[in-house]
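Appendix B. One record, verbatim.
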Amino acid sequence: MNKVAKNIFLEMSMTQKGYILVILYQILVSFSPLIIKNLSLKLPSALIVIGRYFFACISLFVVMLVNKLLLKKLLKLKFNQLKNLLILGVSSSGVGSLFYVIAITKIGIILTTYISSLEIVVTIVLSTFILKEKITKEFLFTSAIVLCGFFLLIYKGGLILNYKWDYIFGILCALISALVWGNATILGKKLLDEKISSVIITFVRHLSGVIFNIIVLLFTLRIQIIESIFSLTNFDWMQFLFLGIIISGIGFLLYYKGLKLSNAKGTALLLTISSVITTVLGITLGKEILYMNQFLGAFLVLFGVHLLMKISN
């Protein structure tokens, strides 16, 4: 069985292999919203981001210590490369992740996941102008199916003018994270095209996010930080380690390797997979409600991803 699976993987095109790696990343990252929701009951949003990426940085630094060539490449980065890496880190792991966590505390994991996944639209538009990637009719059709699915998943009825401020603020935070992460997909692709290792990109990205959120935490003057940390149970720490090392460390390496082998538009559409898995986790473990139109939306998302894989053939 393993031999058959290995042969199938070897016979795939480079683009398809990239998509498989992105899908593996999506499976891992689908657990992060539920973990963040659990941790947000005890910790401020910035501290969750700091802890998540701190553990990820430790694991990635160990990788670079083992492979000293990576450490040498890190120290030999050009100024423009380092500048772009810092921009990527502060924007995506810093600003984007912080607003994402805040959104989860305001509107829940399911709605936050789907709104922030509108980065698909941002990535497609930016990839057209910056990366000069061609958009075919088939791709537009697939995008339309996926986006229709998203709108069905997001809609819960009623006029937004009647919603509470916390709900509106949560939606805005999720939209900001979508805008930031869409741009990050493009910038990450450009850095990979410059032959920068995915380990280095992920390490600098997360380290920048840690530093940014430490500054945020200091400016917000949260005096209960120490008490919040000591209130964490062993299970909370296990969630933190899984969130940092497995999802943000190993997961992001899979993502950047997949992004390097594939194209930005296709990768963006595959980012919908974690949304569907997160929905299931949100309903079963997060005790959140999903309406019939949202179930239809989930089906359209999966169908659109299936069409994308056929197009890649």
